[in-house]
Structures are given as structure tokens and as C-alpha cells.
Amino acid sequence: MLAMTSTEPISTEMPKKKRPGFETEMRTAKERILQTSVRLLHRQGFHNTSVDQIISEAMVSKGNFFHHFKNKEELGYAVIESIRTELAKDLANLLSNRNNPPLKRLFLDLEQALSDEGRLRKGCPLGKLALELSDIHEGFRKKISEIFEMWTGAVERVLEEAKLLGDLKQDVNCHSLALFWVANTQGAMLLAKSHANAAAIRSQIEHLTGYLKGLKP
């Protein structure tokens, strides 16, 4: 039996080449969208930030936005991942720095927050999203929870290091102490934002210093 032949014409056109710099432009546009979104969500929250506002302030077209993100929800996940990436860098420095004893590294990390008054006035982006989204979006809640677990785990490792060096009693529960540290830090940053100054964090450092002194052997 003879094979049937197609009557459709065979295209002889070569695939169109993308103009030079196209990929770089797309990557740059996506970065602008993401950076603008992080800034706006930090300042005014997820629900008060519209796609149109992001497009306007990022100076991209609507088509460009939807080329990179299907919808605002997908962008929300990207923003949370961006926050996770930045925090992971800070925690990596906390864990790898061997120039100071472990407990001093924790306090230096807190004191660094005091040097950025603008950041204090805006509050913690992770805490802000947790308060706004955890009760209404399970997917966002899980991602935010994972970031808090990452933060708590890093603090716990530093506390375990302090215990090995004899800076903490052997019966100290480092996991519970790490949870206390993270919760205390979040509360202090919330108060610092509410009062528009760093007094809450300074007070926290003083009280944590006294508390940890009581946990020394």
C-alpha cells in the first residue's frame, strides 16, 4: 500500500532569531518587577499593591509582566522566595563567621538592624507578610513558615556551638531558646516600627544579654 502524502505545504522559513540583547532585557525586566514588588509589598502590603501599580513603578508593559508571572499569586510566591534568598545569605554569614564567639555573633546580627533606621520604620517584610497572609492563603503560609524554620534552625546551630564551647549550660534546650530568640526579635521589630525608633530592639538586646548570662555554667 502506498503511503499517503501530506497536501500541506512544507515551510522553508528559518526560525526568527531574537534580536541581540533580548534575553538580557527580559531578565532585567523580571528583576525590576520583582524588586519593585518586594519594595511595594514591604511598604503597603500584598492586598494594597495592585499589578497596575507594580507595572507603572517597574516601568514595564503589562505584556512584559504577564510574560514573567501568570498572575499576582505567582508573583507573591516569587516575592517570598526573594525574601528567603536574602535571609539565607545573612544566615550563611552568621554561621560561617568565626571571627567572634557564637553568642556575640547573634548580638552583632541584632545590632546591625539598629543601623538601618529606614528598615526599622518599615518593619520586617517576612513578619508583615506573615501577619497579612497566613490566615487567608495556605500556600503562602507554608512558604513563610519554612523561612521562619530556616531562621530558627540557624540560630539553634549557633546556640549549639555556644554550648559546645561552654558558653551555655549543657541542659539548655537550644531549639526552644532559638524559637524564643526569633519570636523576641520579631516582636521587637514590630514595636520599633510602631514607635518609629529602635528603642525596642535596644531594650531587647539588654534583656537578652542578661537572660543569656543566667544560662552560663
Automatic annotation (TrEMBL):
Residues 50-69 bind DNA. The keyword Nucleotidyltransferase does not apply. InterPro entries: DNA-bd_HTH_TetR-type_CS, Homeodomain-like_sf, HTH_TetR, Tet_transcr_reg_TetR-rel_C_sf, TetR_C. Gene3D superfamilies: Tetracycline Repressor, domain 2. Residues 27-87 form the HTH tetR-type domain. Keywords: DNA-binding, Transcription, Transcription regulation. GO terms for molecular function: DNA binding. Residues 1-10 have a biased composition (Polar residues). Pfam families: TetR_C_13, TetR_N. Residues 1-24 are annotated as: Disordered. Signal peptide: none annotated. PANTHER family: HTH-TYPE TRANSCRIPTIONAL REPRESSOR NEMR (PTHR47506:SF6), TRANSCRIPTIONAL REGULATORY PROTEIN (PTHR47506). This is HTH tetR-type domain-containing protein.
